[in-house]
Design brief:
β4 and β5 form a beta hairpin. It is globular, with a radius of gyration of 21 Å. It has 12 helices and 12 strands. The chain has a single domain, classed as Creatine Kinase, Chain A, domain 2.
Length: 393
Amino acid sequence: DPFAELPTLSFIGDVIDVATGEKFERNPRFVAEKAEAHLRKIGYAEQSFWGPEFEFYLFDSIRFENQSQHSYFRVDAAEAHWNTGRDEQPNLGNKIPHKGGYHAAPPQDHYFDFRSSICQVLERCGIPVKYHHHEVGGAGQMEIEVMFDTLTKMADRTMMVKHIVHNGAAKAGLTATFMPKPLVGEPGNGMHVHQYLARAGHSLFYRKGGLVNMSDLALHYLGGLLHHAPALLAFTNPSTNSYRRLVPGYEAPVKASYSVGNRTAAVRIPGYLTDPRNFRYEFRPPDATCNPYLAFAAMLMAGIDGVRRKLDPGQPLNKDLFSLAPRDLERIPTLPTSLPEALEALRRDHKFLLEGGVFPEDLITTWIDLKSKEFAALNIRPHPYEFQLYYDC
């Protein structure tokens, strides 16, 4: 472990049922392994490849407390726009405007060297990095993207990336959060997941001359993602905070549509793709509150179901969804707007996850129960904004 003072080995393992000596059925990592095995068994592809984008905020300070008589949170980021007039000696400026952080360069980007050092650690830990950059959020929003790998390996790497970022931030006197929406009015943190099916390492999603150069396999897989999207969000966006990010106006998807290069769609086909060997698309709703083993496995199973049933995703919608007339917008299926909606969608639509014994039924019911309790615990607590609205009623 690169952050331990004494030589320490940190590793990822499996959970074994001591009564049987077999792998524990509800272990998320085992679910991911079964999903990969199911794909190979049915023969649609040899492998699936996955590439999450890791978005997070770096703050210089975070305080929060929840008591019966008071509750609050307070964050600060040295580069944030609200610090332009901060009374400090010296205040050297170099603050990033509100929503003006995308690919900012130093000195406005205060954390370029931090990200570079984190990427070096990732590489030393066997995680190849594609790139890093400052994200849209001027109050310390970052992104690191790693190279593609197979499903379970990438889920392992997701856990390692978060461990390394959290510990690297603490060592640098900072604090990192992958929380989907830590700040109102600022962009949220997504974990957009690029994915494709492959044989001999080459993408099976590409067919020159097909609809946006997609093969029939890719179209049907995409149809499965969109068809099951409401249920998928119970795994890819499994927190109450997830749905504070999935709102109009922040490049976050709210409709089950797909597009070329359009960040407001649930599925985006990146416009910069030039290599048919890794042709893919990006499922944009997920965030880092997900369990990556369950989220990736659920997406794969949705895609497989789309291929099996030859589901048609329709035509791409290459427009900014938020610019459409209300009547046109209503025709597009809406993604869940709250955690209870997503959990209810999963309750109604989870048969596709049970195929091949990949997801045990009791894992799904346990997940729904666990997440319902999280929502109930938050829902009974008064919110500070409610005092602003209703205290003098």
